[in-house]
């Protein structure tokens, strides 16, 4: 069930389920790492940094009607596990188990386990298909396959597509990791969330970023082919400037260069993304650079 991709937040960085790595928002506020954004809303997982050098991360997790916390309570104490605000006993020999009544029988909602005398915890809900591991320095989240494309947060949407990874809580596509990260920061009385420009609410960058299919030539003479990327990538329009470049290993589908259909597709690639290549067979792979975001100077 859990031999799937992991979202992990370590230090100042996070890697999403779809293996995009970027810098976490630099704030002491809690951030939404992962959330069930389907109508079921089974879980919500929050994370933040602490001032404890040994246990630099803290986790707050909501399952059903329960709040689970894995955190140090001060700058010089070890991490503990709390459920609904109360510390619970967890030892290598005796996990903590929480049951709920379904109306027919009691079933286990989640368990908290530890594997040695150090406070390294794992919260596992077989019922909801969620597993969160915590070692003080990192937070590691795994989800069951039925959550693919149904989650949101800094861990991404878990849909195996890296190119629309930065979807904010309002379903707005962010074109850089900074505004995307800040969109999932949760303000509180003790913590002010960073301000950011919502790309769906401002027109300054409207039309700057377009999605286009990348093309590459392969071979020579009569054997020459034109190869089209299986997935479109962001590109800055003529009046805009890129911020910084990112790279990805991209698959390509190749066609004979002199074929009339190929020539037509080459012309179309300049004005629209060629989504018809999404399910085509991959003939070659190449590293492609694309802009993280674009802006008008």
TrEMBL record:
MF terms in GO: lipid transporter activity
InterPro entries in alphabetical order: Vitellogenin/Apolipophorin, VWF_type-D
UniProt cross-references to Pfam families, sorted A to Z: VWD (PF00094)
Domain of life: Eukaryota
Domain VWFD: 5-192
Protein name from the UniProt record: VWFD domain-containing protein
Organism: Haemaphysalis longicornis (Bush tick)
